[in-house]
Amino acid sequence: MRFFLADLEARLRERKIWVAVAMFAYALAAMPALLSNPPAHLREALEGWFGSSDPFTLFMYLWVDTAMNKLVVILAVAFAGGLLVSERDRRTLAVLWSKPISRTRYFLVRTASAAAALALLYAGLHLVGLAWFSFTIPGFRPGLFILLASVHVFAGVVSVCLAATIAAWVGRSALALGLSLLIELSLVGAALVGFYNPAWREAAWLNPYALAVEPLGHLSNLSVMHIALPMLSLAAWSAAIAAVGALGARRWAL
Amino acid sequence: MLSLELGRRLRNWPLWAVSSAIGLVLIGVAQVAVPALPASGKRFVLRAFELVGVGDFVLLNDLLTLYAVPFFAGMVALQDVLLRPREEGLLDVLLSKPITRRAYWYGATASVLVLAAAQGILLALACSAAVLWEDTATVKPALAFVSALVTLAVALLALVATNAAWLWVQDSLTAIVVGFVVWIGPLLGTTVFLYRPDVMAGARAALLAFPLNTVWMAQEPGVAPVALTAIAAATAGVLVASARRFEQTELR
Q1: Is B165 an interface residue toward A (CB < 8 Å)?
Q2: 20 to 30 A from A147, CA-CA: which of B54, B69, B150, B180?
Q3: Cβ–Cβ under 8 Å, residues B130 and B58
């Protein structure tokens, strides 16, 4: 636990946090202007995809595409895409492996601290967003915004686990980072495909990011299950991916 | 210097092979997924992005892949120019060789650009071949290739700009976030075009709504040589300016 907290504290002091804050600030500032006069054809399309075209549905569609589909993924790769490979490249593995901690535990604790740092950052910035959007977005629904964001955090945890696992198995820093970026951006790019083509809705659920956006289709009749099921599924995805990564970490020699 | 650096970069061939494979798969998936969309969805995209036919819609998807894959593969390869050698304490060794800093910067950066361009041309050929299966009445394969070349040129410009921005970055993982910001910048024009066509219209959209404007270029190919010349000049300018800055930077 002490290692986890120390690592989390170190992550929250990194310079990339400020780059992330600047990205979120830009997104917060741009949203009201982008949503102030949406074209009629966009509203019609939303009606077909989500069964509603009210201002909040439009807002969430853009916010998911910005916050979850772009910022979360890139931050997850930046937080966890260099796990083990960076230590190896900096020649600090020998020191680490001399400590009384197993490779599996080292991998899991550092992955968990990266996920916690991302979740804390995401939560903090959403609290700022909550205040800002309440004044600037017509029809904004604060409770629903926080509920949906709490599902998206779980998608962020999946992203962190995936980036860390790819690093642990690939072992080459450039290849691991490149793969993480391209795989995760491809998956988020397909997150909404089940709404665009209802025939593929169930098949799309194989993609964890599609699970995270599933509540968007139930905004008018949202129940506990619409939130809890994606959360549980995403938690299971994270645990399974991290377990695969931990197996990969066991192979790491000096 | 360029050939030596190119040889060094080619040792990282799995990165280029795997990312090319991902790019080709994404182009193949768009080939199946876009035509299979319900008619209302296709109608919306054609209306929202002012496209002529489904072939243009497929091309737009493929150009996004072409903008992403060579950029991200090139971005992680570019980390070997400055960031990783500095983190690993090898930069002094590299610069102690009988070469000028400027020669090192040009050689190391250009070698990545050459590989990213080669990968981009492969994907551009796939983009234009993909159009063959679609509505060739609205977009011709040769014109799709020209649009793809312009998109690739923007990706290379973004790579050079990212490399320049990294002169102010110390950590290779923070650099990923900075690179992403540079990459996504040109795409914001298309986002504005989708949500606010009232403010992003006419000449402004033609200039800023990337990569949508390169799809429109397939209808007006005369614009492409002008665009390619301007982008190449900007790329050369950023490369020269970053080399100058690299010469003056105190490296720690």
Answers
A1: no
A2: B180
A3: yes
Interchain CB contact of B90 with A (< 8 Å): no
What's the 3-state SS for B173-189? HHHHHHHHHHHHHHHHH
Token look-up 């990282």 returns B12
The whole-angstrom separation of Cα B139 and Cα B156 is: 25
Structure token digits, residue A251: 């192979």
Confidence band for B251, pLDDT divided at 50, 70 and 90: low
Q: What average pLDDT does range B55-71 have in this prediction? A: 93
The answer to whether A34 contacts B12, with C-beta atoms less than 8 Å apart, is no
pLDDT computed for residue A254 by the predictor: 58
Measured over the CA atoms of residue A184, residue A185, residue A186 and residue A187, the dihedral's sign is: positive
Long-range contacts of A197-204 (CB under 8 A, 24+ apart): A197/B33, A197/B36, A197/B37, A197/B38, A197/B41, A198/B38, A199/B36
Q: Regarding predicted confidence, which is higher, A137 or B84?
A: A137
List all residues 6 or more positions away from A124 whose beta carbon is below 8 Å from its beta carbon: none
By residue count, chain A amounts to: 254
Which chain B residues touch A36 with a CB distance below 8 Å? Answer: 196
> Which single residue is written with the structure tokens 């002169």?
B167
Give the CA distances from residue B157 to residues A116, B24, B237, B242, B243, in Å, rounded to whole numbers and listed in that order.
35, 22, 10, 12, 15
Half-sphere exposure of A33 (CA within 13 A, CB side): 10
How far does A196 lie from chain B, in Å, by closest CA? Answer: 7
Q: Position B69: which residue type? A: V
- The answer, yes or no, to whether residue B155 has pLDDT greater than 70, is yes
Torsions phi, psi for A106 (to 5 deg): -55, -50
Q: Tell me, what amino acid is at B162?
A: T
**Closest approach of B139 to chain A, Cα-based (Å):** 24
Q: Let me know if B193 is exposed, middle or buried by CB neighbors in 10 A (0-12, 13-18, 19+).
A: buried
Residue indicated by tokens 């900096």 = A90
CA–CA min distance B168, chain A (Å): 12
Helix axes B172-184, A15-35, angle to 10 degrees: 20
% of chain B beyond a pLDDT of 70: 96
Q: What is the dihedral of CA B226, B16, A252, A88, to 10 degrees?
A: -40
Residue B17 near residue B5 (C-beta atoms within 8 A): no
**pTM of this prediction?**
0.90
Residue with tokens 């535990």: A105
CA atoms within 13 A on the CB side of A81: 28
